[in-house]
Amino acid sequence: MTKKSNEPTVKALSTLLASSYTLYLKTHNFHWNVTGPMFNSLHAMFEVQYTELALAVDAVAERMRALGAFAPASYTEFSKLTTVSEETGRPEATEMIRMLVADQELVAEAARRLIEAAEAARDQASADLATRRVEVHEKNAWMLRSHLE
Fold first, then answer.
1. Which pLDDT does position 36 carry in this prediction?
2. Residue 121 and residue 147: Cα distance in Å, rounded?
3. Which long-range contacts (CB under 8 A, 24 or more apart) does 86-90 make?
4. Nearest in space to 3 (alpha carbons), one of 72, 57, 69
5. 73 phi and psi angles, rounded to 5 deg
6. 63-99 burial by CB neighbour count: b if 16+ within 10 A, else e?
7. Under-50 pLDDT residues of the chain
8. What residue ranges define each of the domains in the chain, with the CATH number in brackets?
9. Most CB within 10 Å of its CB: which of 35, 87, 102, 140?
10. 80-121 pLDDT tens trace
């Protein structure tokens, strides 16, 4: 693969990295600040999800490095690239869940865009990474939605 053929894949990886990191921070925020009758189950579920995201951002950034690109690594860069909005308030537990469902779906969509870019570049490793990310985010969205039923 040439550097030129990697550009769309690297761009999609950057978006996935920034979106995943923003979701990590938001999920960790909600883990710390959730209250109410669902506290125990949400506190535990949020911890599982942010812990998985911490490992995921490392894998995404390392894939970028394997392609010869540098990974964005600051809040300033992430804020320009992310599809997930940060949360500075303290929403109620059910609103936290709704927000995280939407955000999990946004990150899954960012991973789908990475699949498209990687397949066009015949980069199976990046496509495989993105496919695994879609699976995780779709499952997380389902688990979160289940708390709203």
1. 96
2. 39
3. 86/22, 86/25, 86/26, 87/26, 87/29, 87/30, 90/33
4. 69
5. -150, 35
6. bbeebebebbeeeeebeebbbbeebeeeeebeebbbb
7. none
8. 3-146 (1.20.1260.10)
9. 140
10. 999 999 999 999 999 999 999 999 999 999 999 999 999 999
pLDDT score of 125? 97
CA 114 → CA 29, 93, 94, distances in Å? Answer: 27, 31, 30
* The two three-digit tokens of residue 123, written as one number: 């980069």
CA-to-CA distance for 79 and 122, rounded, in angstroms?
29
User: Residue 10 CB: number of other CB atoms within 10 A?
Assistant: 22
